[in-house]
Amino acid sequence: MLLNGIRGFCMAMADSVPGVSGGTIAFLLGFYDEFINSLNDLMGKDNARRKQAFFFLFKLGVGWVAGFCLSVLVLSGLFQEHIYEISSVFMGLTFFAVPMVIREEKDSIRGRYGNLVFTVLGIGLVFCISYFNPAGGQGINVSVEHLSMGLMAYVFLTAMVAITAMVLPGISGSTLLLIFGIYVPIIGAVKELLHMNLNYVPILFVFGMGVITGIVGIIKIIKMCLERYRSQTIYAILGLMIGSLYAITKGPTTLDVPMEPLGLQTFSILFFLLGGLILAGLELLKTRLEK
Known about the structure:
mainly alpha; 13 helices; transmembrane helix; VCA0040-like; DUF368 domain-containing protein; membrane; transmembrane
């Protein structure tokens, strides 16, 4: 229970910030395949495997909820007040995760360099989404008095896409929320709900339904890709991670009062290196857990 609670806690800390995904953390901590198989078994017809999967995911979930709530309470204020420092941390998390994934999957990618085309496609996909997204440079208000059918449909579809990224090791779902301009609004909505402000319940319900729909729709595809096309999938994941470095620079433009993108003048090397130290700590934690 403690082991899987810690794993879930670490996944939540990653899922709640743009950068690496919770799937990447599961990958780096060595339980990603068990995580994917459990999600798949939970939707299967074998009762014994479904029960085993439920208890495994429940233990992860307890840690995930604790980590996510703690992260949201801290991040919501920090993101508004120290956007460039936090974005620099996100850059560090993503940058230093790339060689870690390469090392973990060296047997899958070594000698298959023709699959680099999938890396290029991954980079291009994230760049295009970041550059052409309809919410770029706009602050979005998601409280109940500002809701519309168009906004709810937008949040639902974005949640579906984001949860796909959270499950995959690679680009963070939070990075996609950042790209689409609803990261700060959703984090703020969760914080308001934790303070018993019910004005944000409708949009969080819509977001939650999008998450559930995304999981049900994508998990079997992810499992198939990792089993049959692992090399191509890993190369694509690396492309998504590299492309997300550009997406993170756009984070400041999604605030309620949009700010300039992260640039050389506002980039913090110290906070960038802090992102690397966080990943080094996770690597140490993996070693300890394995012992």
